[in-house]
Amino acid sequence: MAPPRAPPRGCAFPESAMLDSDDFDFLERKFEQKYEVTEPKVLGEGTYGKVYKAVSKQNSQVVAIKRIKLNPDDDEGIPSTALREVAVLKELDSEYVVKLFEVFCSPHKLVLVFELMENDLKKYMKSVRGQLTPRDVKSLCLQLVKGLEVCHARRIIHRDIKPQNLLIDSQLRLKLADFGLARAFVVPVPKYTHEVVTVWYRAPEILLGSSIYSIGVDMWAVGCVFGEMATGQPLFPGDSEIDTIFKIFQKLGTPNEEDWPGLSGLPNFKKNFPSWRHKGWDNIRTTRAQVGRNGIDLLDKFMAYDPIKRWTARRGLSHPYFQEP
């Protein structure tokens, strides 16, 4: 009999699963004993896995499962994004964060079992043709900010806030999902990769090449999502980093050292960038009609150019916009 093979790096499972090649799918069979995939149609698909609907054979609870194929011959083992997501979700326990129920791991597959949310914000906005009510805009934004306050209080930066990663159910309860790019932060903040956050929701400090950033990148993305819910379309739909930063400058004005001390020292900032004035939220589609004067003020607080001046989630929760009836 061939000697047992080691599990993928970062993956631990019972010794009974370590017999020979016939037992490589031991935990996959364990999964199938507890859950049944009810719809073969893929609910969603990410970089490393596909999401399906399944039902628990124990209590009939409908769940979402993410299947991630592994290459047992790959020295990298489990993708770091999957490990990171599992670690973060095991730590977070909040009504505003999607729940991870179970993890099944074998040398061939990693299966994550989540609570099922019927929709994501992007799909929902498309279904209503971008016409959210002012009340729904406020409710969804409040839940998003509460979810990030929970993450940031535990020193976790999400780093990929966008409508596709905000799950909602039929009652418009919102939960943060897809923590594959999340990571813990410490003080002082170390240098991070700037290849995070989908470009449309990417904070200007990252677009301009800064490798030192913190929770402000999440709050900028909140402002982008908030504005998108109000206007019915993305605020800065650039096709590249430079196109996105120019779209930001065109709407919010080109910043200077007075607005953002240290701006000129960022790697990708050029002194010959075009100079635009703030367009004004009154001229950006239906923003004021949807969120009112207080909502506009909160947008400005979340989208301050200087990350130090950008409001945190905790501070945002006390803003008058959320106190209004």
Automatic annotation (TrEMBL):
<keyword id="KW-0808">Transferase</keyword>
<dbReference type="InterPro" id="IPR050108">
    <property type="entry name" value="CDK"/>
</dbReference>
<dbReference type="InterPro" id="IPR017441">
    <property type="entry name" value="Protein_kinase_ATP_BS"/>
</dbReference>
<feature type="binding site">
    <location>
        <position position="66"/>
    </location>
    <ligand>
        <name>ATP</name>
    </ligand>
</feature>
<protein>
    <recommendedName>
        <fullName>Cyclin-dependent kinase 2 homolog</fullName>
        <ecNumber>2.7.11.22</ecNumber>
    </recommendedName>
</protein>
<keyword id="KW-0418">Kinase</keyword>
<keyword id="KW-0723">Serine/threonine-protein kinase</keyword>
<feature type="domain" description="Protein kinase">
    <location>
        <begin position="37"/>
        <end position="322"/>
    </location>
</feature>
<keyword id="KW-0067">ATP-binding</keyword>
<comment type="subunit">
    <text>May form a complex composed of at least the catalytic subunit CRK2 and a cyclin.</text>
</comment>
<dbReference type="Pfam" id="PF00069">
    <property type="entry name" value="Pkinase"/>
</dbReference>
<dbReference type="InterPro" id="IPR008271">
    <property type="entry name" value="Ser/Thr_kinase_AS"/>
</dbReference>
<dbReference type="InterPro" id="IPR011009">
    <property type="entry name" value="Kinase-like_dom_sf"/>
</dbReference>
<comment type="similarity">
    <text>Belongs to the protein kinase superfamily. CMGC Ser/Thr protein kinase family. CDC2/CDKX subfamily.</text>
</comment>
<keyword id="KW-0547">Nucleotide-binding</keyword>
<dbReference type="InterPro" id="IPR000719">
    <property type="entry name" value="Prot_kinase_dom"/>
</dbReference>
